[in-house]
């Protein structure tokens, strides 16, 4: 079908069999927000660790607010998901290298809860950012439901603090990455998450006992296991918004499997958009066969 038939003016994309599909972008450098065009649904993942390069940046609420605010203002009425700092493990933060447990799984939300001052500063910056557009906040590397509850408490406390200082703020929806197998298997227990987004980069490495950039293990071979886990987890999501922002979403090869798993919202690097858009237009979402087959 010609693109004009499958792309409405609001930027809504449809598969060959007419199922609405959302296509969003992942951004690292905040300047990449300029890639947000009318045909893109929004920002499905902003990796805030690219905006916070050191412990000093992590302690600087006003600097973070200025960066996030620019992104939200540029996005206008389109939704933006900013992910809280995903540091630790293979993602170091300058000034925090000496933390002894960094190599042993203290990463993402676990690190934020272990270093609550970093989390509180970012929570305040995000609460203040939410006034400027359609912000949602996403938590990285969530393994257990209580981690969300503890972060939500931090947001509530910091919102009260901002209120006492009479600073404008708003509570954003708080969702989570699904990138730890233990969380994917138990997704129905995450009642306090507002939405879910699959991170296949980490999901793959933790499922395949590999590392994300490993040349030793063929992580592509793990794709069927990853797809099966995603399909099961989507069923456990209880109707909450579900998307995928890992690299698998940007590879047309996996699109039939991801559609069959029930996914209808894909967030990809800006450069991957044309390939994924044409793949979506050519596929039936409610079946895995290509259109016209
Ligand atoms: C992922 O793990 O798939 C993901 C999107 O997060 P990151 O690549 O930043 O670890
Ligand atoms: Mg990840």
Automatic annotation (TrEMBL):
Q: Which UniProt keywords apply?
A: Kinase, Magnesium, Metal-binding, Pyruvate, Transferase
Source organism's superkingdom?
A: Bacteria
What cofactor is needed?
Mg(2+)
GO MF annotations in UniProt: kinase activity; metal ion binding
Q: Which residues belong to any copy of the PEP-utilising enzyme C-terminal domain?
A: 13-281
For whether the record's keyword set contains Transport, the answer is no
Which GO terms are recorded in the biological process aspect for this UniProt protein? Answer: phosphoenolpyruvate-dependent sugar phosphotransferase system
Q: What family, per the record?
A: Belongs to the PEP-utilizing enzyme family.
Please report the name of this protein according to its UniProt entry: Phosphoenolpyruvate--protein phosphotransferase
Give the fragment's position in the full-length protein: 239 to 531 of 531
């Amino acid at each position: 079908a010609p693109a004009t038939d499958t792309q409405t003016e609001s930027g809504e994309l449809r598969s060959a069999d007419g199922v609405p599909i959302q296509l969003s972008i992942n951004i690292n450098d905040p300047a990449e927000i300029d890639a947000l065009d009318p045909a893109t649904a929004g920002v499905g993942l902003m990796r805030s660790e690219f905006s916070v390069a050191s412990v000093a940046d992590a302690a600087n609420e006003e600097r973070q607010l200025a960066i996030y605010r620019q992104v939200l203002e540029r996005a206008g009425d389109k939704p933006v998901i900013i992910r809280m700092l995903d540091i630790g493990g293979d993602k170091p933060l300058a000034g925090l290298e000496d933390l002894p447990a960094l190599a042993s799984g203290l990463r993402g939300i676990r690190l934020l809860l272990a270093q609550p001052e970093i989390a509180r500063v970012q929570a305040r910056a995000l609460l203040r950012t939410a006034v400027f557009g359609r912000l949602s906040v996403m938590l990285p590397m969530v393994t257990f439901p209580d981690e969300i509850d503890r972060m939500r408490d931090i947001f509530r406390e910091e919102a009260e603090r901002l209120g006492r200082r009479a600073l404008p703020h708003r509570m954003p929806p708080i969702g989570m990455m699904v990138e730890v197998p233990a969380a994917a298997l138990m997704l129905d227990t995450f009642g306090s998450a507002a939405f879910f987004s699959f991170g296949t980069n980490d999901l793959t490495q933790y499922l395949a006992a590999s590392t994300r950039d490993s040349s030793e293990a063929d992580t592509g071979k793990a794709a069927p296991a990853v797809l099966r886990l995603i399909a099961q987890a989507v069923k456990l999501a209880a109707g909450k918004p579900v998307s995928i922002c890992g690299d698998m979403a940007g590879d047309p090869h996996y699109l039939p499997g991801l559609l069959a798993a029930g996914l209808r919202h894909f967030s990809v690097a800006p450069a991957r958009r044309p390939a994924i858009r044409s793949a979506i237009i050519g596929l039936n979402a409610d079946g895995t066969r290509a259109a016209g087959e």
